[in-house]
């Protein structure tokens, strides 16, 4: 039985529900990133109040610190981090291949690399990635894949596709935690032939959901969106579709329109920690002097704690004085904004009005950006 129910479509855009062992995920869904079992600076109750139904935790980092055995002994990832909803864990593959200076050897069996923490040699295989995630006890576990960088040669992308398929076939049969869902990842860059080949291979393995990996890694945005336009419909319609590592508002609207259900990114909290807010009229850099005496809210359309109580002038003061309270408020606001945007997209799809919803949102985002950041 599929874990996914498709409830409404508007063109190619989809609204549905993913059922997990610890709660339903309403799609389209943005997943806040809790890399080390913590969404940076924020309490789990704040993340939940912002509208999050699922968070992402990082297999690579948790494997090294504190170790999956510690987390398993302390009750699993949800109890460990005090989060009461579903958790998705990545496989660690993206970290291994993005930290290319740590790579030692890649072969058909797995990948050997040096730990970013202490330089010791470590090896990931499809089976070990499955075992780590089983010990973590996540609700959704991702398959180990090979993620080449933007600009990689066709031969390198083809090798990544081949190994990703080999590894996925092995991980498909590996033990998993009770009730744990498993998603496959298709590679192929922006190459139609290789991406199609990878999707066909991964889809044939019968995972609970499928992801487009190896995008948003530095390729041109037009090429990325074009790839999603033809690749997303190739993924099984009865299963969730996940775009890995995407989190800016404009891009989310574009990929939702192209049939994507799930996405994640560190962007909202990272921007918040540097003093930048995502708003309905574009990014606002609160370090700019123009906000020093501004009595208005950060975003008049937002009901988050930062916008409902504090002025831009006060928030700028906190940011410029490096007060953690200000960085916390901006991080929370940015999450609230993206989660509210995706919830609005879901409602628009259900009404059959996504195209106008997207157009209105982009008109505000792109029209206001220049003015907000002068």
Features:
alpha/beta; 15 helices; 43% helix; 8-stranded parallel beta barrel; 2 domains; 374 residues; 3-stranded antiparallel sheet; globular
Q: Whole-number average pLDDT?
A: 97
Query: The CATH topology of the largest domain is what?
Result: TIM Barrel
User: Cα-atom Rg, whole angstroms?
Assistant: 20 Å
Number of helices: 15
Shape: globular
Straight-line N-to-C gap: 53 Å
The CATH superfamily of the largest domain is Queuine tRNA-ribosyltransferase-like
Low-confidence stretches: none
Indicate the CATH architecture of the largest domain: Alpha-Beta Barrel
Query: Helicity, in percent?
Result: 40-55%
Biggest β-sheet: strands ordered side by side in the sheet: 4-5-6-10-11-12-13-14
| Backbone structural class | alpha/beta
Number of strands: 16
CATH class of the largest domain: Alpha Beta
Count of separate structural domains: 2
Proportion of strand residues: 15-25%
State the major sheet. Answer: 8 strands, parallel, barrel
Write the layout of secondary structure elements.
Elements: E1 4-10, E2 13-20, E3 23-27, E4 29-34, H1 44-49, E5 55-57, H2 59-64, H3 68-73, H4 77-81, E6 87-89, H5 93-98, E7 103-106, E8 111-114, E9 121-124, H6 126-136, E10 140-142, H7 154-172, E11 181-186, H8 192-203, E12 209-212, H9 221-231, E13 241-243, H10 249-257, E14 262-265, H11 267-273, E15 276-279, E16 282-285, H12 305-309, H13 312-320, H14 324-351, H15 354-372
Parallel strand pairs: 4-5, 4-14, 5-6, 6-10, 10-11, 11-12, 12-13, 13-14
Antiparallel strand pairs: 1-2, 2-3, 7-8, 8-9, 15-16
């Amino acid at each position: 039985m599929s874990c996914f129910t498709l409830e409404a479509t508007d063109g190619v855009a989809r609204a549905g529900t993913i059922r997990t062992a610890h709660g339903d995920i309403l799609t389209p869904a943005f997943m806040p990133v809790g890399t080390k079992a913590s969404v940076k600076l924020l309490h789990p109750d704040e993340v939940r109040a912002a509208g999050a139904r699922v968070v992402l935790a990082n297999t690579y980092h948790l494997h090294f610190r504190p170790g999956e055995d510690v987390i398993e002994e302390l009750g699993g990832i949800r109890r460990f981090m005090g989060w009461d909803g579903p958790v998705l864990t990545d496989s660690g593959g993206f970290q291994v291949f993005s930290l290319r200076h740590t790579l030692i050897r890649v072969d058909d069996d797995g990948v050997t690399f040096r730990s970013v923490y202490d330089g010791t040699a470590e090896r990931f295989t499809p089976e070990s990635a499955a075992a780590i995630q089983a010990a973590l006890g996540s609700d959704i576990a991702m398959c180990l894949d090979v993620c080449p960088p933007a600009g990689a040669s066709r031969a390198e992308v083809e090798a990544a596709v081949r190994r990703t398929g080999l590894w996925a076939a092995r991980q498909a049969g590996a033990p998993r935690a009770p009730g744990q869902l498993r998603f496959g990842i298709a590679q192929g860059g922006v190459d139609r032939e290789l991406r199609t080949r990878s999707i066909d291979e991964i889809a044939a393995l019968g995972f609970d959901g499928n992801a487009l990996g190896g995008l948003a890694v530095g390729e041109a945005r037009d090429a990325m969106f074009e790839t999603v336009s033809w690749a997303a419909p190739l993924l099984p319609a009865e299963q969730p579709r996940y775009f890995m590592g995407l989190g800016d508002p404009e891009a989310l609207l574009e990929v939702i329109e192209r049939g994507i259900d799930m996405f994640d990114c560190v962007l909202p909290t990272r921007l918040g920690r540097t003093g930048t807010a995502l708003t309905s009229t574009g990014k606002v850099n609160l370090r700019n002097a123009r906000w020093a005496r501004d009595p208005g809210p950060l975003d008049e359309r937002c009901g988050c704690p930062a916008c409902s109580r504090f002025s831009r002038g006060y928030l700028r003061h906190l940011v410029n004085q490096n007060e953690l309270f200000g960085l916390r408020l901006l991080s929370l606001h940015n999450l609230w904004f993206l989660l509210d945007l995706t919830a609005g997209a879901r409602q628009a799809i259900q009404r059959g009005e996504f195209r106008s919803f997207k157009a209105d949102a982009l008109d505000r985002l792109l029209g206001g950006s220049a003015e907000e950041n002068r």
